[in-house]
């Protein structure tokens, strides 16, 4: 018996062939893609160069001397004897207070002194007469003692009267309100005709001595220790009196034409900010500097002949705020390196530790690489800068008037 022969229609045969082709395509593996090429970065080869080191500290100017002019006696102001905003000299009369009642008190005190002196003459003459009589027993001892006491009492009254005269003369003199110091006087607070009181809290005017003038800066305490070591080692040039010269940059970027000197520092460190106030004094003959101006004091620390510089854009910070860089080591592999910086030079950091000459620091492409990555290296094109340019050491946290600060060596 013959086996039945199955017949297939043309559409069914086409569908079977199509299914077979789909299964065959699915069973084929997708071709593997090649590994990505190494990331391209630009690196700077660190080379030592001479750099002039300068410490730049923000600060404010303070008056060398300042005096609040206030009345010492009560009365009505009769005259104002100065021009507002001009220079005055110590002892120059500024105001005249009505002296009439103080003149009368002075005259009365002089009269009482004259009366006391007359009484003393009488008492002394009586005592001189009683001396021989007492020796001859013509007067009693009690009468002589009374004459002696009266003479001494008269002398005491003279002293009291002299004190009253001096007090009255002082009050009369205080009706002339004089300048206690030399300097520039500001506007008058009270005008002619105003009633003033002795011991009042409000000022008549304020006199400020502008030449010389102070500049107060806040310096991290650890930086002060470093500067003192450098002065002791002779790295920082000093004047003949062993003071450290300081230059000044004004708020508009101009340089002040007078050179000052460090005068002293506070004896206590601010516990909240770890800073100490350092005061410099500057000549100010033209009265160009005024109290309260924001300035930058610059301290020359000499030249570092082997300074290592890296661009600021190549430096990042870890979670603790410590600076670090990416370097390309042997085999063109990236490694992370912790560094220490203590100053800036233009747009570069001066590295004090963590790098050595010849190290290759990643500058461009820093965000695309990680430690251990293999990279393709091209040189970083840095701007040409002449040698021995000044480097500004400015602690990033140092601010005037008690702002917070930290060790500049960790910046």
Automatic annotation (TrEMBL):
Residues 66-208 form the Multidrug resistance protein MdtA-like barrel-sandwich hybrid domain. This is Efflux RND transporter periplasmic adaptor subunit. Residues 390-411 have a biased composition (Polar residues). Residues 212-303 form the Multidrug resistance protein MdtA-like beta-barrel domain. Residues 377-411 are annotated as: Disordered. Pfam families: Beta-barrel_RND (PF25944), BSH_RND (PF25917), HH_MFP_RND (PF25876), RND-MFP_C (PF25967). PROSITE patterns: PROKAR_LIPOPROTEIN. NCBIfam families: RND_mfp (TIGR01730). Belongs to the membrane fusion protein (MFP) (TC 8.A.1) family. Residues 1-30 form the signal peptide. It is found in: Cell envelope. Keywords: Signal. Residues 306-368 form the Multidrug resistance protein MdtA-like C-terminal permuted SH3 domain. Residues 106-175 form the Multidrug resistance protein MdtA-like alpha-helical hairpin domain. InterPro entries: MdtA-like_b-barrel, MdtA-like_BSH, MdtA-like_C, MdtA-like_HH, RND_pump_MFP. It comes from the Bacteria.
């Amino acid at each position: 018996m013959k086996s039945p022969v199955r017949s297939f229609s043309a559409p069914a045969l086409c569908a079977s062939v199509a299914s077979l082709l789909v299964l065959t395509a699915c069973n084929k593996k997708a071709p593997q893609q090649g590994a990505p090429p190494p990331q391209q970065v630009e690196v700077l080869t660190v080379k030592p160069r001479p750099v002039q080191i300068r410490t730049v500290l923000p600060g404010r100017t303070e008056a060398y001397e300042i005096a609040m002019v206030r009345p010492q006696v009560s009365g009505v102001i009769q005259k104002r004897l100065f021009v507002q905003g001009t220079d005055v000299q110590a002892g120059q009369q500024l105001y005249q207070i009505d002296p009439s009642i103080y003149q009368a008190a002075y005259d009365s005190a002089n009269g009482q002194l004259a009366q006391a002196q007359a009484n003393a003459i009488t008492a002394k003459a009586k005592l001189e007469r009683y001396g021989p009589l007492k020796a001859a027993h013509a007067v009693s001892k009690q009468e002589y003692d009374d004459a002696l006491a009266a003479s001494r009492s008269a002398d005491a009254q003279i002293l009291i009267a002299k004190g009253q005269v001096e007090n009255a003369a002082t009050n009369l003199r205080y009706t002339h309100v004089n300048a206690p110091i030399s300097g520039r006087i500001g506007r008058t607070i009270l005008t002619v005709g105003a009633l003033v009181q002795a011991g009042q809290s409000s000022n008549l005017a304020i006199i400020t001595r502008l030449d010389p003038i102070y500049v107060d800066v806040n310096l991290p305490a650890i930086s002060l220790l470093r500067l003192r070591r450098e002065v002791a080692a002779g790295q920082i040039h000093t004047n003949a009196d062993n003071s450290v010269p300081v230059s000044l940059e004004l708020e508009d970027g101009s340089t002040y034409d007078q050179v000052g000197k460090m005068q002293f520092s506070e004896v206590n460190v601010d516990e909240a900010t770890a800073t100490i106030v350092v005061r410099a004094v500057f000549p100010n003959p033209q009265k160009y500097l005024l109290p309260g101006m924001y300035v930058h004091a610059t301290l020359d620390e000499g030249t570092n002949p082997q300074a290592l510089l890296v661009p600021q854009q190549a430096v990042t910070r870890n979670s603790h705020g410590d600076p670090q860089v990416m370097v390309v080591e042997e085999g063109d592999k990236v490694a992370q390196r912790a560094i220490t910086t203590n100053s800036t030079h233009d747009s570069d950091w001066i590295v004090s530790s963590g790098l050595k000459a010849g190290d290759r620091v990643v500058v461009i492409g820093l965000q695309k690489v990680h430690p251990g990555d293999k990279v393709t290296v091209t040189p970083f094109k840095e701007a040409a800068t002449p040698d021995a340019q000044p480097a500004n050491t400015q602690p990033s946290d140092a601010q005037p008037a008690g702002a917070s600060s930290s060790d500049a060596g960790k910046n």
